[in-house]
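Quick one - inputs below.
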Amino acid sequence: MRDRVSQVPGYPDEKQFQGFIRRRRRRGAMWRTLFLIATSVGIVVLSALLLNILDDSFGYVAVKNEIEPAALLATYAPKRLPMERGGADYQILRELSRDVQVQILRDHLSQGLIRRLESEQPLDQRSQEELGDLIIERVVEPHFLASWSLFDSVFHRARIKAEVAEMDGASLRFYSWLNPKFVVSPQSSHPEFAGIRTAILGSLWVVAITILFSLPVGVAAAIYLEEYGQKGRLNDLIETNINNLAGVPSIIYGLLGLAIFVRALQPLTGGSLFGIGDATTNNGRTIISAGLTLGLLILPIIIINAREAIRAVPQGIRQASYGLGATRWQTVWHHVLPNAMPGILTGSILAISRAFGETAPLVVIGASAFIIRDPDGPFSKFTTMTIQIYQWTARPQAEFRHLAAAGIIVLLALLLGLNATAIWLRNRYQRSY
Amino acid sequence: MQSDLSQPIQAMNVPVAQHQEVIDLRRRRRAGESLIHGFLFLSGVLSVFTTVGIVLVLLSQALAFFRRPEVSLFDFLTKTTWQPAIGEFGIFPLVNATLLTSFIAVIVALPLGLMIAIYLSEYASAPARRIIKPVLEMLAGVPTVVYGFFALTFVTAILRALLGSDRVEIFNVGSAGLVIGILILPLVASMSEDALHAVPGALREAAFGLGATRLETTLRIVLPAALSGISAAFIVAISRAVGETMIVAIAAGAGPRNFKSWADAVTGFKFLNPFTAAETMTGHMVRISGGDLSYDSIDYDSIFAIGLTLFVMTLALNIASRWAVRRFREEY
Amino acid sequence: MPDILTLPRPSAPSISANGERYAITAENLNVYYGAFQAVRDINLKIERQKITALIGPSGCGKSTVLRSFNRMNDLIPVARTEGRVMFHGKNIYDADVDPVEVRRRVGMVFQKPNPFPKSIYENVAWGARINGYRGDLDALVEQSLRQAALWDEVKDKLHQSGYSLSGGQQQRLCIARAIAVQPEIILMDEPASALDPIATLRIEELMRELRKEYTIIVVTHNMQQAARVSDYTAFFTVDEHRTGYLAEYGPTTELFTNPRQKITEDYITGRFG
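Output:
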């Protein structure tokens, strides 16, 4: 039985063909392995990105207290001597009776400081928790002399212990840089007490402005392009233009925001036109400038996504509506928009998570490097989570690197939540026509 | 007769005419509709105003920059030093650093991303693809400041451990470039996978039916058919790399890598050294504007001139991307 | 090749001792898609250099059987094949058989014309090239296009895209592409279903022409087509589990004029299907 291929001149004969096909097979297997390796490398590298953040968020710190909590307790509450070392002795300070706590503060702090604290909020009106924190911050005054990553803490424990033993008065504690206090504390120049609350609020304010501006305008633009605009040069121009805008680097939007919102519209965005704000914010470097800049930045993304969602609404629904004598807007409002809404929202949430993650344009329009006070309106100075992470990363001390890592986890958790919402929305409202 | 005839007709006509309502089919103005139409139209053209705004702002401020006595367009384009403090404004060191980081990123991300796309689209099982694809899309949404942190705290540390800390500076172009590559990797992989996946299965079947192996089908039928989408993915990724800011601001360097002359730049390929620090266009803009920039300073004007250069570069890439999509589009 | 199987009909023509009479045979073939059994217990012997038509109502598994002759079902991840398909005395589902080898010898033409997004010339030359053809490529392309009765229409535009052709021409291009790798058997999966009547007629003429050199197995849902072009016809139908099985197989004239099974008669007289 000879097969046809080997009879045809030009084709390799049966024996040659066997070798030939083996070579092809080998080449196929080789490339397949290569593709698999590439995918694995990608997965490994991207996991390294996440592991690196976890690695920096937890680990040993060498703490030195100005006054040991144990010493305080021995004097003021001898019955409550701590049974063990570690976090527990700090916690006991928060659980002491308020009289004792106030007493400790009055004994250890200067008159001037006490007066300042009283003027902020009288000491007897503060809660146990707040007074305890005040004692830890002002009396115990812990300092981190050194800090280690999670990896070092697990694998080089002996070496770390030896190092800490040499440090005068230092004790070793396992510390989670990501902790409830970190999330609710304002910015501080002491890494021991620094938190990300100001930045979280700043991000929320900025993105709220962004949404208020870009969601209605973006959806309106999409409706115009899909339902109203006639096919023609203007439509083509707008369409090309939107696609181009989506590819403009975000820092360019920062320049636009700086020149327009911060500088040209200063009286408006600085709040002086409305008689709000003060000298520090009247320069226009405010939440509203940041929000509008990011709004322009994500506008193309919202328009592109909203157009797709509107286009997916079947033509039959529109025809049915027009057939009943509805006007164009009635058709859009009662039929097209409700059907397109899940798609529009999904796309918009993704755009909004982009706004949460932006840093560069905010640096350019002048995010504040260091603010402790919570933002209280669109005309406040602003910082955001990304700005805060950037500034902590740029500091040379290892402690701030750990803070940056903890901040990144908070930011990623927020973005993950947004993404999950988007996916949930998509699945929940996916329609079959 | 006539009157007889006309009578009944009139008698019939009159009541009919009375019953017939007068309907007005003329186009009528609806104030609400017009108002809404106006708002929608304004929203639509706002994007055009944004572009016009960007171009106007960049051009006018750049013009103000070049009007200054200490600046000349010729020096801007030909000098090899960027030192605002002594009035040297040659864009080359900044552009050079941008191109260098982008080049390193592209060398890493394009082949790797394409291979991942091929694996996912042509080799991986459906469940594997269902898991990996959304993960890729999610990673593409991780803020760039996170990648910057990764570059400085991890990749730089690894590079210094591997190649020696005397050779690799703390801030270096290589680490920033590698991490930009990692940043655009999910983008390249995901967009290329979309393009490969869109190639109809009938073409694969035809190739297999002729006795092609999976590799031959993939590389010689599917890949060429997806070339349009893949080239678009590549160009979008390059554009992202060129415009990337936070990674370079954090990890690449806090000052331009200046050269005494062109000869100095070329000696020992100094301008290509990936292990020393250099500031890119975007990195410089971020550092300069980080302080409280005064509006009439030369620094303020200079960042717009740099911004204009960057805008032109990315615009060219965007246009190239659309051209590539048309040029390589294959109908099937 | 010892013949251990008999056809499912009592009056099957006696089989010569010479195994060469059959190009390919299915023996107790079962194909599953996941838990669903698509076809069961197929025993089918395909005569050499004849046209065999596979007919039956939609969903009866005729395409599944066709695709099991060159292991195209392998490309569906959930598909599983049991039984044997004997080709040159070898079961093509044996572990040591390379599906790539099989498909080179058992070519395929698909329901919808699917030329590669390449030039007409490249469409024909591609298969030959990957299979290591070292002869005169131009001659092979011309010969294949002539065999597919397309040469006169495309000889002046060989370097235009395959998609510049009409649907019928595209399908003939796909046939030329299959011929160029010189298979023994050509499988055709409803090759004319997407074409107009005139283009269909040309494909049918072409099939009769190709029968001189190739064994052709064609799936069709068009009974007139089966009656017009085929030498043998296999009629498939489904049982109560929607699993397909071979109901009747024989020379086309016999099956259409004098069906042995009631169900076959019902089908060809249009009472169901």
